[in-house]
Amino acid sequence: DRDLGGSYVLGTRIAGGHSSFLSIGNASAFGGTFDGLGNTIDNLAVYGTGAYSGLFSVNRGTLRNLNLERISADGAQATHYNVQVGSLAAVNLGRIDNVNASD
Question: What is the per-residue pLDDT for 64?
Answer without folding.
Answer: 99
